[in-house]
């Protein structure tokens, strides 16, 4: 089981704050592709260009390996000044 959290605009667009994935994706990139199967809104909001990802509260990229019990969070890029 991998707990997947969604924040800010992504949460609003997908109309959910979290889901549990029972499949065993090997990497963050595999998880993205698995989630994209939920529909076009999922693909557009969880693409590499429109979202950042953290695994167990540390920023990661799509090559990050995943294991059972991990917490993965998707959130939009943050800007500031």
Architecture overview:
This protein has 81 residues and is α+β, with helices and mostly antiparallel strands. The protein has a single domain, classed as Ubiquitin-like (UB roll) (Roll), CATH 3.10.20. It has 3 helices and 5 strands, in the order βαβααβββ. The chain has helices at 8-14, 28-36, 40-45, and strands at residues 2-6, 18-21, 52-55, 58-60, 71-75. The protein has a 5-stranded mixed sheet with strand order 2-1-5-3-4. Strand 3 (52-55) and strand 4 form a beta hairpin. The protein is globular and about 30 Å long. 21% of the residues are buried.
From the structure above, extract its key features.
five-stranded mixed beta sheet, 3 helices, 5 strands, Ubiquitin-like (UB roll), alpha+beta, 81 residues
Would you spell out the secondary-structure blueprint of this structure?
Elements: E1 2-6, H1 8-14, E2 18-21, H2 28-36, H3 40-45, E3 52-55, E4 58-60, E5 71-75
Give me the secondary-structure category: alpha+beta
Helix-strand pattern, N to C?
A: EHEHHEEE
CATH class: Alpha Beta
The helical percent reads: 25-40%
Rg calculated over all Cα atoms: 12 Å
Extract low-pLDDT stretches: none
CATH homologous superfamily label: Beta-grasp domain
Task: Kindly identify the CATH topology.
Answer: Ubiquitin-like (UB roll)
Gross CATH architecture: Roll
Largest sheet: 5 strands, mixed
As a percent range, the share of strand residues is: 25-35%
Strand order of the largest sheet: 2-1-5-3-4
Please count the helical segments. Answer: 3
């Amino acid at each position: 089981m991998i707990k997947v959290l969604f924040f800010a605009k992504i949460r609003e667009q997908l109309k959910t704050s979290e889901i549990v994935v029972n499949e065993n994706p090997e990497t963050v990139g595999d998880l993205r592709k698995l989630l994209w199967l939920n529909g076009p809104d999922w693909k557009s909001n969880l693409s590499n260009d429109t979202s950042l990802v953290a695994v167990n509260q540390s920023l990661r990229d799509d090559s990050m390996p995943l294991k059972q019990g991990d917490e993965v969070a998707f959130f939009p890029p943050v800007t500031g000044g």
